[in-house]
Amino acid sequence: MASLVGHHDENLRMVKGAFPGTSIFVRGNEITIDGEDSERVGRLFDEVVSLMKQGHGIDLVNLGQTIEMVKSNESPSQVLGTKVLRSSAGKTVRPKTAGQKRYVEAMEKSVVTFGIGPAGTGKSYLAVAQALKCLQAKEVNRIVLTRPAVEAGEKLGFLPGDMLSKVDPYLRPLYDALYDMMDSEATHRLMDRGTIEVAPLAYMRGRTLNSSFIILDEAQNTSPEQMKMFLTRIGFGSRAVVTADDSQIDIMSGKSGIVGLEEILTGIEDLSFVHLSSSDVIRHRIVADIINAYERDRNSRAVSFTPQ
Hints:
10 strands, globular
């Protein structure tokens, strides 16, 4: 009970704040719930107990995620009970929201999966985890990580070194995900062997990638021609995951390869689109609030615009 209600009843206060029309009374090992949301609050406590039995610690962050899932009629114990990968450091990678669970399920069943959503929703991280899982299971022979080298206000020409040195900062998030799931020595060993390849998108042209797990990150910064080029690189026994944030397009001119793509590819077998939202953000709460604020502003501008 002490773990359930939290230190100085902080968990209990969060639940009461999330369901203000409900009264919650704790006496010994018994919780009494009354009010308009009593059924949902009762299910919330059942889910929290199930998570604790699975070995999950309950803090304010994952309690907040659990509350949001219950409000959306999702089962937190099923979502958080899904395991993607157990890293070499003993860390278990798993989805933390219902949207992330749909994303993981799509990657499991589809040849090509598109994960579209704002920053912090775990698009790249979960894709790398799924790629390592497939490599460990010998479902693929190698992992190819790529992303377009598009400037977001800075110019590549001012950076020192050759082309690979210049695009290395753009590939850094993919390196970070790898290092978080594997020790650096093992990562470098696999990269030296070519089992893990990290390259800019321009280097994909003319290749056919068989028995590979291919991840195209930051795909909102591809052109339609680049997107078509990438999708036609997929060979036999391969899988591809394309991640994009359509609210952060940095292409200075022309059209993004992700815009309108779902309409073009709808109906193709073994291809999935998963849309993530601010409710799937696993960062500080303020990040979700900022994303929502920008989204409201973008929507208001779209509504108020009158073509001449």
